[in-house]
Design goal:
By secondary structure, the protein is mainly beta. About 15% of the residues lie in helices and about 55% in strands. It is built from 2 helices and 10 strands, in the order H-E-E-E-E-E-H-E-E-E-E-E. The longest helix has 11 residues. The chain is globular and about 35 Å long.
Length: about 140
């Protein structure tokens, strides 16, 4: 599965309200639901080397960052050519207009429906961007 497909899956099946479930400096887990009270684990990003995201956000659209966004971000942090930059356009408590947030990571784990785990590789150009599907709670 390509990275774009993974991000589309997050856009389709996530929820309205998202929150950071945990972040240990390398792995970032996001939960989502109809409200933060009913949020369930949806995705974990691994190999996170940069994170610019509020702890709670709503109505997100996940996408690959544009070339201009990558260039702008590289002025703040070292972004290698083969790094994957995920952009999240979302509402937050910061203001009335949607903002764009960023995650730079090497892989992602989707929580699979029904606890069935499937391993797939996603591609960005010619470079593999691995992600692992996993059961909820793992």
């Amino acid at each position: 599965m390509a990275l774009e497909e993974l991000l589309q899956e997050l856009n389709r099946g996530g929820g309205w309200d998202w929150c950071i479930r945990s972040f240990d400096g390398c792995s970032l887990s996001l939960s989502a639901g109809s409200s933060s009270s009913y949020a369930q684990h949806v995705v974990a990003f691994h190999g996170v080397c940069y994170l610019a995201c509020p702890t709670e956000f709503s109505h997100p659209t996940f996408r690959v960052a544009s070339t201009a966004e990558r260039l702008s971000l590289s002025a703040q942090v070292a972004v290698d050519e083969d790094d994957t930059v995920v952009a999240i356009d979302a509402d937050s408590s910061v203001g009335m207009e949607p903002l764009t947030f960023f995650i730079v990571a090497t892989s992602a784990t989707l929580a699979a429906a029904g606890g069935v785990a499937t391993t797939r590789a996603a591609l960005v150009g010619a470079k593999a961007w691995p992600y692992r599907a996993n059961s909820v709670g793992k």
